[in-house]
Amino acid sequence: MNYFDFPLEEWTNTFVDDWLLPVWGDFFDVISNVLTVIIDGVTNGLLFIPPEVLTILLIIVAWKYAGKGVALFSLIGCVFLGSVELWPEAMQTLAIVLVATFISVVIGIPVGILSATNAAVDKVVRPILDFMQTLPSFVYLIPAILLFGLGGVPAVIATFVFAAPPAVRMTALGIRQVPNDVIEASKAFGSTSKQLLFKVQLPLAMPTIMAGINQTMMLALSMAVVASMIGAPGLGTTVLTGISRVNVGLGLVGGLGIVVLAIVLDRITQSFGKKA
Amino acid sequence: MNKIEVNNLTKIFGSHPQQGLKRLSNGESKDDILEETGMTVGVNQASFTIQPGEMFVIMGLSGSGKSTLIRLINRLIEPTDGEVLIDGHDITKMDKSELIETRRKKLGMVFQHFGLFSHRTILSNIAYGMEIQGMAKDEREEIAMKTLEDVGLKGYEHSYPNQLSGGMQQRVGLGRALANDTDILLMDEAFSALDPLIRKEMQDELIRIQSRLGKTVLFITHDLDEALKLGDRIAIMKDGQIVQIGTPEEILEKPADDYVSNFVRDVDRSKVLEASHVMKTPEVLLSYKDGPRVAIRKMEEAGASSIFVVDQEKQFKGLLTIDDAVKAHNEDIPIQDLLIKDVDKTSPHTFLNDLIGTAVQAKYPIAVIEDGKLLGIVSRVSILSGLVLGKEKGDEQTS
Fold first, then answer.
1. ipTM for the complex?
2. Domain map of chain B by residue range?
3. How far apart (Å, rounded) are the C-alpha atoms in residues B186 and B111?
4. How confident is the model over B297-308, as pLDDT tens digits?
């Protein structure tokens, strides 16, 4: 079957070794340093606040936006995380998730807006998103390690690749779903394209965009274990330790920690979407 | 000057509109062009003018291109060819900022499905046009509040569109267009989505607003009754072309072709024809100074049992019956003492529809009076013949 002899493997390695690393190495170092500062800042911030205080804050937010049930669940979840002595790990995971989600939103929403309003952009963006969502995450872990070393930074990058697509897709969907007569009305009264976007399209797309952010956050959490394989500390590390020591209990405790975090984050961000 | 002037306005949807344009100017039909090139002719060389303060109605069935046409006026759809002069300025040649300025200052629009901003309160919906022009919040909300009261929505300022009924939502749509204080209102099937009672109410409201504010209105509808009721003039569209422009009476009486006459065949004439269209000049008039003897002779000549009395200035004085004329003659009473003053009266602009009830009960013909002058009389017979045969003397019409 070898008709063409396609040495993709060698090409890629040559590309990475001879061009990407030597030419762009410094650039990636800058990104790496900036991200490290952000991740460490968020992690330390979360760890600095006493667990009790953070729990109460979380309960207040949950109560206000998502109701009593979610508030109660948040209390139980936080007490659980503390009781199995996984609070610091949970905060480390949360920090990675928050940073990755933040980057996904900052990049994803503008890209989503562009691809909703510009057919050419949409044509380019779509296959890239398909690629990001379906390429096995281990494949891009390798270059992530090469470019950013081990630790939180490659974890955030890998998480971004996997989790950003829903933010882009749902933003584009939300904007496309704005009824045509509403857009016509806005234009007919003399809106500029900017006014149309910020006063009409984005506010009306907001519930859909929030659903996208919610999905991004869930996908980011689901990357916790993978992230830990490249040195990001957190609940994923606990699960990995459980696996390597064949310690079922430890694995379950770590896994449940991720689930608790996921449910609390999901319910609260979903309620944001409904409010918007 | 014309408020709106439209010349040869054409819209062709498809990949090579210029090629379609050429075919159109060669006289090819819309169907041929669609079949041979796959392109749709939306509007085909439409031309008309609208005067300031005029209510101009474009009537056509769905697919006739009327909704496309109204969107070409404010360039929500880009025209393929032709010009649209708003106060003498061609909107098709404007750059982006001129276009936005024209839309803001001159063109208000009301939509069939309202097009309200569901995330904004009623007040903020109405204030939208002013908001995007950068008017301060206090100022625009004050104007919006006034407009809101004008369109009968007081108390709903903090509600959201989905909390309102269809009729009220369209009041918001109307208010949003009025608040901007543009001279021109574009109304795209504005009342078509409303139920009949609310629709009538909104039509009356629009007529009131228009006569108060003197807006120039371009109104699109598929409903001929609505067109006849609202329009000072009506343009009838078919397959993207305007087939006839005229006043409601002209459309009814002289349909330009079979298409239009098929349309108007089933029209309820009673809602279009006015008293002045069917009234007759009273066959006998009695000057105020004539005595009962003259009155009796004139009634005898006319074969009538009563006669209207006016003075030299044609001012209406009253009605004299034959019995009273005889009584006046025999007992030598001045006839002015025997005049019946409270006969049924009407203005020349009353629709026949509103006269039928009166005519059924009236003992005498109805007097058509304007500024105290007797212009004519309307009898039960003339109403009925008007409804059946058309306006003015029914016996002159052969069809």
1. 0.78
2. 4-267, 275-396
3. 9
4. 888 887 788 888
Are B186 and B139 a contacting pair, CB within 8 Å?
A: no
Q: Reading across the β-sheet that carries B241-246, which strands appear in turn?
A: B107-110, B184-188, B216-221, B55-60, B233-238, B241-246
Tell me which residues of chain B, numbers 139 to 198, contact chain A at a CB-CB cutoff of 8 Å.
Answer: 176, 180, 186
Mutating which of A178, A182, A189 best tests the B interface, going by the most B Cβ atoms within 10 A?
Answer: A189
Residue numbers in A near B160 (CB within 8 A): none
- Residue B112 forms contact with A (CB below 8 Å): yes
Decide if B218 touches A, using CB distance below 8 A.
Answer: no
Mean pLDDT lowest among A166-170, B189-193, B354-358? B354-358
The Cα A57–Cα A148 span in angstroms is 34
pLDDT tens digits for range B125-170: 999 999 999 999 999 999 999 999 988 899 999 999 999 998 899 9
pLDDT bin (cut points 50, 70, 90) of residue B248 is confident
The CATH architecture to which B275-396 belongs is: Roll (3.10)
What CA dihedral angle connects B152, B157, B160 and B161, to 10 degrees?
20
Residue of A nearest to B101 (CA): A190
Find out if CATH 1.10.3720.10 is the number for domain A9-275: yes
Edge to edge, what strands does the sheet with B81-86 contain?
B40-50, B4-13, B81-86, B89-90
- H or E stretch at B15: none
As a whole number of angstroms, the distance between CA B375 and CA B380 comes to 17
Name the architecture of domain B4-267. 3-Layer(aba) Sandwich (3.40)
